[in-house]
Amino acid sequence: MADLALDPRAELNPTLVQGDQSYASLTDTISVITESKPPKQWYYAMAVAIPLAGLLFVCLAYLVTTGIGVWGNNSPVGWGWDITNFVWWIGIGHAGTLISAILFLFRQKWRTSINRAAEAMTLFAVACAGIYPLFHTGRPWRAAYWLFPMPNEPLALWQNFRSPLMWDVFAVSTYATVSALFWYVGLVPDLATLRDRARGLRQRIFGLLSLGWRGSARQWKHYELAYLILAGISTPLVLSVHSIVSFDFATSVIPGWHTTIFPPYFVAGAIFSGFAMVITLMVLARWVYNLQHLITIKHLENMCKVILATGMIVGFAYATEFFIAWYSANQYEKFAFINRAFGPYWWAYWTMITCNVVSPQLFWFKKIRTSIPAMFIIAIFINIGMWFERFVIIATSLHRDFLPSSWGYFSPTWVDIGTFAGTMGLFLTLFLLFLRFLPAIAISEVKGVLHNQFVSNKGGH
Amino acid sequence: MSQFVQINPTTTTGKKYWRSLSQLSGTPEFKQWVEQEFPAGGVDAISSSSRRNLLKLMAASFGLAGLAACRRPVEHILPHSKGVEGLIHGKPLHYATVATVGGAATGLMVETHEGRPTKIEGNEKHPASLGATSAHMQALLLNLYDPDRAKGVKRNGARSSWDEFTAWAKDEFSAAKQGDGSGLRILAEHSSSPSLQSVRNEIARKFPKAQWVEFDSVNFDNPRLGTALAFGQPLEAHYQYDKADVVLALDADFLGLDSQSVLPVKQFSAKRRVSDHNSQINRLYAAESNYSMTGAMADHRLRLRSSDIGALALALATELNIGGALKVLSNASDDKARFVAAVAKDLAAHKGRSIVVAGPRQPREVHALVALVNQALGNTGETVIYTQPVVTAIDSLAAVNQLTSDLNSGQVKTLVVLGGNPVYTLPADLNFAKSMSKAASTVVLTAEENETWAAAQWQLPEAHIFESWGDARALDGTVSIQQPMVAPLYYGKPALEVAAIVAGLENTRAHDIVKSNWSAKWGATAEKSWKQALYNGFIDGTKLETVKPSADAARLFAAIAPALKPAPAGIEIAFFPGHSTWDGRFANNAWMQEAPDPMTKIVWDNPALLSQTTATKLGAVNGTLLTISAAGLKATAPAMVMPGHADDSISLTLGYGRSACGRVGRGVGHRIEGLRGSAAFHIAPATVSNSGATYQLVTTQEHHTLEEPITGKLRPIVLEATMAEYHHHPDHFEHAVHVPEVVNMFEQFEWKGQQWGMAIDLNACTGCNACLVACQAENNIPVVGKDQVRRGREMHWIRLDRYFTGKMDDPQVVNQPMACVQCENAPCESVCPVAATTHSPEGLNDMAYNRCVGTRYCANNCPYKVRRFNFFNWNKNLPESQKMVFNPDVTVRMRGVMEKCNYCVQRIEEKKIEAKANNRAQLKDGDVKSACQQVCPAEAIVFGNINDPQSRVAQMKKQQRDYVLLEELNIKPRTSYLGKLRNPNPELIHG
Amino acid sequence: MSAIFSKKFDTTLRLAVAGVVLVLAGAGGVAAYLFHPKQVDTGYTPVQPVPYSHKLHAGNLGMDCYYCHSTVETSSFAAVPTTETCMNCHHRVREKSPKLQLVRESYSNGQPIPWVKVHRLPDYVYFNHQAHVTSGVSCVSCHGRVDQMVEVKQVQPLSMAWCLECHRNPAQNIRPVEFVTKLDWTPEGDPVELGLKIIQAKGIKPPTHCSGCHR
Strand (E) positions, B774-851? Predict the structure, then answer.
């Protein structure tokens, strides 16, 4: 990304906003979305999303009243789709913060029109992710109580802070909080804009939400500082969250889990999948709301470049795992990886390789980087591939570990599938509501890149 | 009951915990239960005999019932009205008694809590037990509480009562009605009870022409008939495995179900135990069709059709040059010839210190020949001792044939069935159900409402052995008194009492019959001796004296040689008792159904076992339904390939496919009895065809070898060596695994004082499942059912890992008991977010159920995968009666909770508190025995304080065979294994 | 552009937010206090089927706890006496008293007296009277001055935290075994010192690991 930062075109490039746009027209195009009745595509999407979200609640209710047995989990495979989905969603959440924080600190102007949606996506993804660790215990009320980091009076006993699961509790909750703050602070000026365009109740609501924003120089000064600080806080989080999630596996003794490469490998993978999801959503959003002139090919192409880069990292990590397994001269370690590629779950492994390592290579070609359908399909592929990566790591490592006598096999039940589809529904519902009621594109920031002389309207100090 | 209904208003709200019958008694289910249990006519019985039992349970136990608008549920404490002698509430009582499965008896010590039998142990003083029991004995406990037992007397399905029956019987069994009794037949199970014998004599006196027929579908007739053939009198052979250096088992699973007690395992393992690399062990040869536990222990195993065993025995006799027989060996391949030659040589070299034994499936001629061979080898009187049989030695097959024809000819007016399930177990071609209906009146006494019960006019519930008085002989003749711990839960009576009713005795109470019977023998000292007998669990000086028979070789050969001709080529079927179901009497016992078969690891099923070659020939794979027909009888069974099974032979397991049975066993597996004709009851030639249909078989363990799939590399999990290797390289096992120097990153805890550990001798373990069932009983481990086992959710805390080594068509088998090994650096502990599993200062890996939230991270991180998770609330909808089986010292786990072996911590704590109260700082070795250790007939499992250098466990861990699994992980398991040794014959070692 | 909100609104809003936070926190605190075993369980004084007074028997008449609760030294469970035990005296003493009606009934018809349990632990807790009594923990430590109670009342929370307090430093509650049932007994000199001496002598190590109480 550094090269992007030095890319002179980034400064002068008009392709971040296309067409003849003035501040007013810009404000209009974006605000009008939240003010007028949504297009019918929006309703179609909702018609799919809401039933799915309903399915989630059905499945969870069934789970809580009956027991984990309604999933496919067993001994030896104690974690199946539950933790797979958890890691997958958390991973997706990464792109948002990355775009908002890191690209911001790197002065990547092209982030402006996608960062708002990406951040929203982060929040919703983390929300979906959070469901799994809580519910995979089968008795969430207990998990919630015992895991809450305070001594359990009247038990006068503490949690076990040596356990990576305990670290997860902190990592994920911190990440969720900071992302939410970051997102909301960024929203304030735009909420004010909406407030000023609105009347009546709508105006009062936005009035409350915009916290009395007036756009005075003093407010801008504070605002930019706050934004900068939050960006600073979030940046390490992008790296820490998935590192800690990876500790769930890295700190264990199970062959295929017990490896030091996990933190960087997981983070790269997370960004990889995150950007794939952003592309998926942006392509849809710009199609639904005709935002081609704001979410331009330039944005999408840059994201494809990021995907290509992180995809290579992930591929390298896969190779390294095999090398280390061989190099360790540890019989069990070696078998774990041979079993991945050629054991009962070979199909999962090769799906992962095809989707994550092979398919992004197409982004070497500008033609494909700039073709909407192509990148959309590849993005979907990557989303699938990254889900399989987590599944391969979790299920195939567990199903055949040390003692052949205890080997087993995992196959999902309809509740597994329902729960996963359900979280997708929840995610989609939330995202569509976001598109409908909040400015999906950071008006104030895009204004900042509208004319080059204004580039430094924020963060540039 | 009135009082209780008023104490525990049934109109209560709030959470209800079940704690004891007294609380239960408040609930509607209970009243309803009582209703079913004690039907009209039974009701007044509750006020007599069962009242005492009920009160015993109620008294001094808690009643609990939620009350509305109360900040906590009100619990009642219900003390006895009058004290009960010897009962200290909170302290279990132990009763010595005896149990009989298939004739000979085993002495038991039964633990009861507040009047509920909760755990069965072996009686250490009893000769047939020596403190150990089999899995079946352990499971008898669950039979007691089986909610599907026969409840109350019925007549043609309509409710009746014992009073009505006795009234009817008085007339039916009167001299006037029966005359000389030529129309009276009694069909019972083999019994060794002297008291029952006395009642039989009484009946014989009263009805001289009446006939008493004994039959068990899993019986030991052939060995006795064989000796009759050899010596002119039926005798019981007692093999002294602890004296034999060479043992040849001919289709005999004497370490498994082909013995009438666990004694042979005790004796054999004694000969198998080594202290160092200079010790000697015995050598075991096995020739068999099915892969048995004995075959698994064997140093050399020859796969052979059961029907070819006779020819093999003859060849052996020839080789040993006994009676100069002709050399015959059906299609003798080199393997067989070499086997016979080598074995003969080895046996000859160990005259008087060897044993040849044949299985009960083998025809009497084979047993006669075996007796002869032992005689020739000078084993008779040394390693093979003969006594009179403890059961009447008859050809029960012939007897039931006779009985059926008498029934069909209308000669039988009254048929009395005492126990068992003849309609299900008798030879199918006799079609006994139909014959039964020919008798004018039929009386059936059975434990459950089974196939025979359905076919009877008078349907009587049989009392469980823990509910009734009686007595029985062990194989060596030692008599034990069978004393009850609880009054009949289901209003049943024992066979003894019904026999007494038939005999028309005035006093038909089992207790009085047994006591008077023995008092007569004791005379003056009666009272004292009686108490003594009850206390010891056996009567001194009742052992039978040995007889020294001898056979005339030449005559015998002439008689039996023709019968030992090699069987014609083609597929044979052989019938085996079920490791789970025995002859079907355990079919409704969930513990047994879920206990994996020791060899196949199959649960809830009885596949047709065959070799890969035969399977290929039939175009069958695991689960293919085979249609088997023999002598006009037909049956289907799913095929399962058993590595090491003999070709052209199919092994079938009895006791499944019950049509009239309780909720657990009904329709589980396939009924094989339908194939057993009276002509060929044990082994039969058969035609088999592939039906094309398939059937789901469920195992707890695939046929894993120790070689990895794909890579084919060997995993150092079970370490093995031959005696020779071990002798020359005592450090063999230390070098078997190359573990780099492991460094501890953290300061290690100092394990001072009492530290618990376990050593498991792989050399002794036969994989018999006794530990698994004992653990289940002790630790309230739930049963999950076939489908859940298929999903990999079985709950057993200890599993018996079975691995094949060598060629898959003729492999060797090793067993490895695997439970939580209590790692000192336990991987499970560090990952639990709520510290629900932590370490005790005595080295136990504690599990606090109530703190567990169920992340399952511990189970994932366990390298041995010994943790078990409650995926559902397995104890939901448990029949009320079955809750009485729970051990009150162990928490019953909720769903979403992880559990695992904890070295029976409840036993440790109990003993520690006792010791402390008596100012003993430390426990003596053997004070605490884990359930698995206590039950193990092979004494393979030793548990104790590893910091006490004198303790048995410390001694074992000192041996050079001692190793821990996955040492390289530096998790420091407390359970270690002693490497397995085999003692192959150098002449037979080949590629 | 006209102001949507009045000047004061800011303050109102701030106050409102602060208020909500405070109320929630307060409610949490109060709940935590109320549902603490100290509040929930102590003081529980059910009505017993027979108006039996410990004050009269153990206090005024000075009967020893062991007389009725005879199993505390030998068993995990402190037995509630059989009706027989009551009748040992009461077939002569107050044999006509209407209060003893139920006792006499129980004695004649063999039905137990339904005493109401006062001190209750969860099913997964395995408390053992023998272990405590024989190492010198007095009845009074957990049950209070029963000899002064007309109706028995729970005086201690019997919560895990409360158990652990003592298991972590037991000295305060250890006394010579012969005085275990002397509820009013106090040593001359420092009880803790004495306790430590006895702990030394007997090698008392109260378990603080899970399986000590949970099995």
Answer: 799-805, 812-818, 837-839, 845-847
How do residues A189-208 score in pLDDT, each as one tens digit? Answer: 999 989 988 888 988 899 88
**Whose CA is closest to B580, among B102, B122, B140, B136?**
B136
Angle between helix axes B221-231 and B364-376 (nearest 10 degrees) is: 60
Query: Cα–Cα distance between B440 and B436 in angstroms, integer?
Result: 9
Single-letter amino acid, residue B492: G
Name the CA dihedral angle for B220, B222, B225, B230, rounded to a multiple of 10 degrees. -120
Q: Does the beta carbon of A333 lie under 8 angstroms from any beta carbon of chain B?
A: no
Q: H or E segment at B302?
A: strand B300-303
Q: Supply the pLDDT for residue B3.
A: 35
Terminal-to-terminal C-alpha distance of chain A: 21
Minimal-distance CA residue of chain B relative to A152: B834
Percent of chain B with pLDDT over 70: 91
Which residue reads 């009643």 in tokens? B63
Q: Provide the whole-model pTM.
A: 0.90
Chains that touch C (3 or more CB pairs under 8 A): A, B
On whether the CB atoms of residues B896 and B902 are closer than 8 A, the answer is: no
3-state secondary structure of B456: coil
In chain C, whose CA is at the least distance from the CA of B62? C117
Q: Which two three-digit tokens encode residue B349?
A: 């070299």
Residue B325's pLDDT band, with cuts at 50, 70 and 90, is low
Cβ distance of C4 and A204 shorter than 8 Å = yes
- Contact residues for A221 (Cβ-Cβ < 8 A; gap 6+): none
DSSP state of A393: I
In this prediction, residue B71 has a pLDDT band, given cuts at 50, 70 and 90, of low
Nearest to B482 by CA among B495, B496, B494, B465: B465
Instruction: Indicate the pLDDT class of residue B800, thresholds 50, 70 and 90.
Output: very high
Write out the two tokens for B427: 């030879």
Torsion of CA B791, B796, B802, B803, to 10 degrees: 60
Q: Which residue of A has its CA nearest to C210?
A: A157
Are A443 and A115 spatial neighbours (Cβ–Cβ below 8 Å)?
Answer: no
Which residue, chain included where needed, has tokens 């090491």? Answer: B644
A156 vs C contacts (CB less than 8 Å): 160-161, 164
Which amino acid would we find at residue B310?
G
- The strand pair at B720-722 and B980-982 is best described as parallel
B561 vs C69: CA distance, rounded Å = 76
3-state secondary structure of A460: coil
Q: Tell which of A132, A163, A332, A405 to mutate to test the B interface (max B CBs under 10 Å).
A: A405
Choose from A142, A155, A203 for mutation: most chain C CBs within 10 A. A155
Report helix, strand or coil for B689: strand
pLDDT in tens, B596-639: 999 999 999 999 999 999 999 999 999 999 999 998 999 999 99
Contact B778, B119 (CB under 8 A): yes
pLDDT band at B712 (very low <50, low <70, confident <90, very high): confident
d(Cα B598, Cα B585) in Å, to the nearest integer?
A: 19
* Cβ A383 vs Cβ A276: under 8 Å: yes
User: Which residue in the block uniquely carries the two structure tokens 């009888």?
Assistant: B633
Q: Is B933 helix (H, G, I), strand (E, B) or coil?
A: helix
Alpha helices in B841-950 (DSSP H): 857-860, 905-917, 931-935
Q: Are B78 and C112 in contact (CB under 8 A)?
A: yes
Taken in order A69, A73, A79, A83, is the CA torsion positive or negative?
Answer: negative
Question: Can you count the helices (H) and strands (E) in chain C?
Answer: 10, 1
CA atoms in the 13 A half-sphere facing the CB of B414: 24
Nearest-angstrom CA–CA distance, A1 and A8: 13
Residue with tokens 């097959």: B397
